[in-house]
Amino acid sequence: MGRDFVYVILGGGVAAGYAALEFAKKGVSHGELCIISDEPVAPYERPALSKGFLHPEAPARLPGFHTCVGANEERLTPTWYTKHGIELMLGTRVEFVDTRSKTLHTTTEFITYKFLIIATGARALKLEEMGINGSNAENVCYLRDLGDATKLVKMMRMCRGGNAIVLGGGYIGMECAASLVMNKINVTIVFPGSHCSKHF
Ligand SMILES: Cc1cc2nc3c(=O)[nH]c(=O)nc-3n(C[C@H](O)[C@H](O)[C@H](O)COP(=O)(O)OP(=O)(O)OC[C@H]3O[C@@H](n4cnc5c(N)ncnc54)[C@H](O)[C@@H]3O)c2cc1C
């Protein structure tokens, strides 16, 4: 089965959310634009995941940090996309792009487009890519998406008073370490340089 769109945004992060907002402002017609994301929720502000989402008191939760129309204004919830006739294909991974026939192959169907916007962002480096096994262990957490942050919150609740190692001394590592301390967990940060955030 295949479907046809004028515009397809591949990826469901902030770039996709704000691009959709600009399309809506310019008056895209219903059914012209589709966002395909392998995440299960509409685009959200990823920075919340290493900050408010990890707080022990009054933590940030969706829909409170979906991408938004403007500061403190309407959030782009799934209802907003429906209202503007923008198709949200969530939990859908694009496996292959054929740019000659302008076709995307997803896990379940193929989609044709006139214009493709690639907004696939970045991902966390896995332990295995550093020559270490263990990514799937229950007590190993990454912090890139909502699923990762949800697992981390669960671990923090189970391990109050325990010890954690944060691998990475950049902004996200340091914010994560601060949140772990707020959750009463002792933290050791491991990083290769002489001090944290040496690139900044
Ligand atoms: C925990 C954390 C905290 C951060 N804090 C800050 C901050 O304080 N300030 C700041 O400026 N930046 C921060 N960042 C960085 C910021 O979030 C990124 O720059 C931003 O997310 C980039 O947005 P993006 O839409 O380009 O890509 P991404 O957010 O990476 O989104 C890419 C999307 O594409 C999807 N995707 C990828 N491949 C496929 C595929 N084949 N099929 C379907 N979908 C696919 C992904 O699942 C994802 O939804 C933080 C990042 C993280 C992880």
Automatic annotation (TrEMBL):
Residues 7-193 form the FAD/NAD(P)-binding domain. One of its GO terms (cellular component) is cytoplasm. Keywords: FAD, Flavoprotein, Oxidoreductase. Gene3D superfamilies: FAD/NAD(P)-binding domain (3.50.50.60). It comes from the Eukaryota. InterPro entries: FAD-oxidoreductase/Apoptosis, FAD/NAD-bd_sf, FAD/NAD-binding_dom. GO terms for molecular function: oxidoreductase activity, acting on NAD(P)H. It holds the Pfam family Pyr_redox_2. PANTHER family: APOPTOSIS-INDUCING FACTOR 1, MONODEHYDROASCORBATE REDUCTASE (NADH). This is FAD/NAD(P)-binding domain-containing protein. It comes from Mikania micrantha. The lineage of its organism: Eukaryota, Viridiplantae, Streptophyta, Embryophyta, Tracheophyta.
